[in-house]
Amino acid sequence: MTISLMQTPHVTDLLARASGLDQPGGDARLKRIVGRIVADICRTVEEFDVTPSEFWTAVGYLTRLGQANEGGLLVAGLGIEHFLDLMLDAREQAAGLAGGTPRTIEGPLWVPGAPLCKGEARLDQDPEAGEVLFMEGQVRDIEGRPVAGAIVDVWHANTKGGYSHFDPSQSRYNLRRRIETDAEGRYRFRSILPSGYGCPPEGPTQQLLDRMGRHGRRPAHIHFFVTAPGFRKLTTQINIEGDEYLHDDFAFATRDGLIPPVVHHDDPAEINARGLNEPFATIAFDFVLNREAADLPGVEVARAHAEAA
Ligand code: BEZ
Ligand code: FE
């Protein structure tokens, strides 16, 4: 027997009252959004014949998700953070903005206040047996002019896929720096090639992914916020080519234009010239920023972040 209550006067009245739509006070936009979400939940219960036990299991799940501070993980894993990028891309395009380095998700693992360095930095402060990476490039505007004094805020995982602050085995701000570009708009840093991140195996995000037959792995990547006065903030990542999850990111963040070549150097003369004993890798990557303008959609995201350690 198909039961349909959604269109009955009793339920439409219930939904309107539950979201305050019958009241003059409150925030009109918020009331409409809450009303839509509540109605979508009720519609889902009706359509899939969700039992009370299933429903309360879901409520318990969300409670545990919050307790484990994994909301940002699940949102990325369900593709919603990527969808927000697609929406912003489309809004920019509709406003006539084109070009610039593609954006991609921030993820939940940035920490404010990384040490600020001029022109260059070394990110790997904790000793690790990883392949040394030298990365460098230029920040430019859309006309190709260098942007001096831009801040390249860079963060990435270690060789085990862990991020300082969230991984207690790492020191404060390991693999995190802010680099101010020089007069030619250039930045460079030394670090180690990261490994891909994986969701905590016992956490609620991985638990749900398991039930959906999905993995919770990301390809190796390096995150950036690039900011400069008068320019739109760029939130992006580069991926390390060759990673088995390069085009199978559980967070859907891999995008064309964000997979630069990684050059591996094993020539003894080059190794020696860098003051190293082992082969190393280099990546060259330039960032292109768009100018800020009043009629463009905002790119500054109000989002709760972990407190700096
Ligand atoms: C990350 O940047 O590593 C990340 C992004 C989304 C979800 C989990 C991790
Ligand atoms: Fe990451």
Q: How far do the termini sit from each other?
A: 57 Å
Tally of contiguous helical segments: 7
N to C succession of SSEs: HHHHHEEEEEEHEEEHEE
Number of strands: 11
Bound molecules: benzoic acid, fe (iii) ion
- What is the global morphology? globular
- Structural class per helix/strand content? alpha/beta
Strand content: 15-25%
Question: What does it look like?
Answer:
This protein is α/β, with parallel strands linked by helices. Helices cover 27% and strands 19% of the residues. It is built from seven helices and eleven strands. The chain has helices spanning 9-18, 28-48, 52-67, 71-77, 80-94, 204-211, 268-273, and strands at 116-118, 120-122, 132-141, 151-156, 176-180, 186-192, 221-227, 234-239, 263-265, 280-284, 287-289. Strands 2, 3, 6, 9, 10 and 11 form a six-stranded mixed beta sheet that branches. A five-stranded mixed beta sheet has the order 1-5-4-7-8, with no helix packed on it. Strand 7 (221-227) and strand 8 (234-239) form a beta hairpin. The longest helix has 21 residues, at 28-48. It is globular. The model has no long low-confidence stretch (mean pLDDT 97). Residues 107, 109, 157, 197, 221, 223 line the site of fe (iii) ion (FE).
